[in-house]
Amino acid sequence: MNSIWTIARKELSDSLRNRWLMAISLVFATLALGIAWFGAAASGQVGYASTPATIASLASLGIFLIPLIALLLAYDAIVGEEEGGTLLLLLTYPLSRSQLLLGKFLGHGLTLALATVIGFGVAGVAIAVLVENVAIASLAAAMLRFIGSTVLLGWGFIALAYVISVRVSEKPIAAGLALAIWFFFVLIFDLMLLGTLVASEGQFSAELLPWLLMLNPTDIYRLLNIVAFGDTAQLSGVLSLGADLPIGATGLWIGLVLWFAIPLAGALLLFRNRRI
Amino acid sequence: MSCFRLENVSYRYDKTPVLTGIDLTLEPGEILGLFGHNGAGKTTCIKLILGLMTPNQGSVSVLGGHAGDPQVTQHIGYLPENVMFYPQLTGREILNHFARLKGAPLQQVPQLLEQVGLGDAMDARTKTYSKGMRQRLGLAQALLGKPKLLMLDEPTVGLDPVATADLYRLLRELCEGGTGIVLCSHVLPGVEPYIDRAAILTDGALKAAGDLAALRRQANMPVTLSLDPANSISALEHVIDSASSSIGLIIKSDSGRLRVDVQPRDKMALLHAVMASGEVADISIHQPSLEDIYVHFIGSGGLAHRGGSQ
Fold first, then answer.
1. Which residues 26-55 of B are in CB contact (within 8 Å) with A?
2. Is B189 helix (H, G, I), strand (E, B) or coil?
3. Other C-beta atoms lying within 10 Å of the C-beta of residue A208
4. Cα distance from A191 to chain B (closest Cα, Å)?
5. Which of A137, A151, B94, B184 has a Cα-to-Cα distance from A62 of 20 to 30 A?
6. B56 touches chain A (CB under 8 A)
7. Which long-range contacts (CB under 8 A, 24 or more apart) does A46-51 make?
């Protein structure tokens, strides 16, 4: 446990030193405040529209940004140490490979969680203070749910980045694969789903189809933040499939947790069997 | 308790044999030189002892335990070849990080940095360090937590002669304190005075192992005598010719002196004869150096003395 924390603490202090933590927090806060104030600009007005609309817009933007940040933060976790020549030295210390990877996860995970809490937390407080007549209780609940799911989504992509990082031996390859993962889950997946939907002309099992959304953590994340308001009208595109998903919010939360637990376990297994 | 004991160890990378049938031990307070050409298997040997890999055959025990166990690795110091560190961190931060990982007291960190001569640079980022400074930091790292087994791969690369001498003095002190030390180096004349034993690897097999005297005996290489004639070279040459009937005696005259290569077993007889003749003014004797022995074992592929004098 001690050595896990030693590794985590170095990652944390690295992200303070290279200002990643500050930069991500700032991006999140700016994004949240910008959407809160100008989210309704399309309908011809400036100002806070409503909590559900704000969260829905935030979640829609979040799926682009959060996976990208998580992947950038974590893709070189192991391959970077290897290229830097420190991996071999680290492993000669009383430190198992699992401890090294879990320490990295703790460090990167805390960095992302802190940035999310600070960035979106500040935005939430600003909305609560500056907007008149906003229902504080529902705003707080929505913000907490949003922050919690954002952290889980980020952890999922950190774990996916580790799967790459323990497998490849060159940093540029890891970076390329990380971008491919982002591209697949954020851009391609929904298109593929839509394509399947159209091509099958309703032949595809209606019960099975909504479950396919669970194969993409970014879809789970959006569903979670939109469905919670009970307003399925906000669901657009393939997400409208989610209205038929028989598992409710708890199921979606479990889905997000599995989406970081399984890749993390996979990365640990791959790392343990890797030749140094 | 041996520092490490390799018994009949073999290791294959995929199908290619890297090490075959290695028997090697290191006792506390001993300095072992591990030599071999590039790719001979030195690094693999070290990685096996560090527990980074497990052998396909044979057994590796380290400090009375199993290689790679945290309780064992805690007492091993290792300096890899071409050691690298996090460029954005200072020397002190890096050493603190490694000390925490090793469970070594943090107050040791500034002491060690002073000891390796980084006292003034400990708060500078290591990306500003020269090769020699990185090497010193690597040494400080290896010395964390008073290791019982210290393995140094090319420790003197980038060090100036004074720092090199300091390093060997330090190693001698550690050794007297009971630390077992492995030195891998290609600078054979540099390490020769400091090692107690040498092990020579070629193509994954141990060609020879033992102290220098034993290796010299095993190599059976000629000893070179340098003789200054008392009267004339030809007289001295005559004495040598008549004194020795042995084969393989090579005489070269070299700016008024005679150089004679003599087999170790004939050395004393020849010396007696030369001394008795009164034709010699001065004698110096050159034993084959570590480098000569190394070249002998590495170069003579047919003369496999596998297992050495272990």
1. 47, 50, 52-53
2. helix
3. 8
4. 42
5. A137
6. no
7. A48/A127, A48/A131, A48/A134, A51/A134, A51/A135, A51/A138, A51/A139, A51/A142
Contacts across the A-B interface (CB distance below 8 Å): 54
Q: Among A21-25, A105-109, A110-114, B265-269, where is mean pLDDT lowest?
A: B265-269
Q: How far apart are CA A134 and CA A123, in angstroms?
A: 14
The answer to whether A94 contacts B80, with C-beta atoms less than 8 Å apart, is no
List the one residue out of B160, B166, B91 whose CA is nearest residue B128: B91
Contacts A7 to B, Cβ<8 Å: 101
Cα separation, B113 vs A178, in Å, equals: 39
B89 to chain A: closest CA residue? A14
3-state secondary structure chain A: CHHHHHHHHHHHHHHHHCCHHHHHHHHHHHHHHHHHHHCCHHHCCCCCCCHHHHHHHHHHHHHHHHHHHHHHHHCCCCHHHHHHCCHHHHHCCCCCHHHHHHHHHHHHHHHHHHHHHHHHHHHHHHHHHHCCCCCHHHHHHHHHHHHHHHHHHHHHHHHHHHHHHCCCCCHHHHHHHHHHHHHHHHHHHHHHHHHHHHHHCCCCCCCCHHHHHHHCHHHHHHHHHHHCCCCHHHCCHHHHHHHHCCCHHHHHHHHHHHHHHHHHHHHHHHHHCCCC
Cα–Cα distance between A33 and A126 in angstroms, integer? 8
**Contacts with A90 from chain B: Cβ below 8 Å:** 101
Which residues of chain B have a CB within 8 Å of the CB of A95?
A: 70, 101
The per-residue pLDDT of chain A, averaged, comes to 89
A143 to each of A47, A58, A273, how far by Cα in Å? 18, 10, 41
Q: Which residues of A touch B84 (CB under 8 A)?
A: 84-86
What number is the average pLDDT over the span A134-150?
91
pLDDT at A235: 67
Instruction: For residues A143 and A123, give the distance between their C-alpha atoms in angstroms, rounded to a whole number.
Output: 9
* ipTM for the complex shown: 0.88
Task: Name the minimum distance, in Å, from the CA of A7 to any CA of chain B.
Answer: 8
Question: How far A260 CA lies from chain B's nearest CA (Å)?
Answer: 27
Contacts of B18 (CB under 8 A, 6+ apart): B11, B12, B41, B44, B204
- Partners of residue A16 in chain B, C-beta under 8 Å: none
Ordered mean pLDDT values, 10 residues apiece, chain B (310 residues): 92 90 94 90 92 92 92 94 93 96 94 93 94 94 95 91 91 94 90 92 90 87 86 81 64 77 82 84 88 82 38
* Residue B157: both structure tokens together: 């690369």
Determine whether the interchain pair B101/A89 forms a contact, defined as Cβ–Cβ distance below 8 Å: no
Q: Which of B100, B125, B126, B182 to mutate to test the interface with A (most CBs of A within 10 A)?
A: B100
Interface check B125 vs A, CB under 8 A: no
Report yes or no: B25 at the A interface, CB cutoff 8 Å: no
